[in-house]
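User: Fold this, then the next.

Assistant: Folding the first:
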Amino acid sequence: MKTSIQIGKIMGIPIKLHITFLLILPVFAWMFARNEAQFGGFSDVEPVMFRYLLGMAASVLLFACVLLHELGHSYVAKKHGSNINNITLFLFGGVSSMEETPKDPKTELKMAISGPAVSLLIGSALIMIHGIFRQEALFNEDNPYMRLIWLVGFLNVVLCFFNMIPAFPMDGGRVLRAWLAGRMSYIKATRTAANIGKMFAIFMGFFGFFYNILLTLIAFFIYIGASEEEKSTEVTVILEGVKVKDIMSTEVMTVSSETTVEELLDMMFKYKHMGYPVVDGSEVKGIVTFSDVQKVAREDRKNVNVSQIMTKELITAKENDEAVTVMKLLTKNNLGRIIEKKDEKMIGIVSRTDVLRAVQLLE
């Protein structure tokens, strides 16, 4: 099941909406519509339908500003040679999916600050517009459009300062890592920033448990994000300099395209491998996995060949590619294994197990 839908591209970067974003948008709209006027809400606006339309407008504008925040990160990243796979808006904000985080502290510092800087610029501009309109008496203070301008401006300022808290995975945590990386090893700097992020999440979760359960939910995501960033960085640093040829398995069991699904299942049971390259002669035709087998009804397995269910569009690697690159391909494409080729011939295979084993040994 697809959890995100693409709605377009900006600067060549695919923009996606996660299913959690679609669920939270009406909740935010409801919250803004029910909030009192003194907090920038629209609870006193009539008719009721207009009140909820203003709430939805505030929600959409807020997430549009979150998108601009992420585009700020992405613009600086692309300017320094990093490739952005996509930007996804989800439950508590946005995430820029970057192929590789630059390890140069100065570059990471610029990237980390750029997002909050965009939010602060938007927030300051909207609050100034609100102030000018109020001073010139162009609109009555109770005008709902004035309130909308102030609310979106205020939330952008909050977004800026919240993101600058020095705790992973927020931008402030990346600023802290960039500062620490100039004084210690990159991996130690990451661990320090991640640990601060975890401690902050624990404190926030404890506080939220008594005052606002939403804070506890946010704290959970912060803790998970800090842990994942720490582990991802450790693995990347550990695998630096390791080539595909150093970790790939050269003795590869294969099946032919004429092998039946029933025969394939027998091989899986006997040899405990859940995926096999499909090879006819010396030509690689595709790859077949247990997930492909599951799509075939039990009574049809004697009559269906591997060629009918295998994946023909292969993602491959070369023996001199970096192991880190293969790890990212496995993760990005949700694959269990990647075939290695040389002169269009298969010379080996790298699985998730091979990568994890290499990491454990090198640790």
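Now the next one, as you asked:
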Amino acid sequence: MEWDVERFKRMFPNLYREIFKLPTIYDHIEVCRDEGEALEIIEYFERRGEISKEQAESLRKNLPRHLFGRRKRGDFERRGLVD
């Protein structure tokens, strides 16, 4: 059985958000051990065009250091958020 994504989204909005939640740059920064890794993540997202140059600069200036190490690798797999 095949579903139309828009119809599914209208019928089950909360389930849609849970199933199709993609990790954000902040989710990736949470698994970084130090500032160097976080800067690499920011550069990668900027290169791919997933964040703007302005947002990347803002993140570099105000790097959310309080996020470092909050989560271990594998949390996405346990929550079912992996390709």
